[in-house]
Amino acid sequence: MSKININEKFSLFTKEWTPKIIAESNGQLVKIAKGSGELVWHHHENEDELFIVFKGVLTLQLRDKNIVLNAGEMYVVPKGVEHCPLAEPDTHFMMIEPANTAHTGILESEVTISADKQEWI
Amino acid sequence: MSKININEKFSLFTKEWTPKIIAESNGQLVKIAKGSGELVWHHHENEDELFIVFKGVLTLQLRDKNIVLNAGEMYVVPKGVEHCPLAEPDTHFMMIEPANTAHTGILESEVTISADKQEWI
Question: To probe the interface with B, which of A5, A25, A50, A53 has the most B CB atoms within 10 Å?
Answer without folding.
Answer: A25
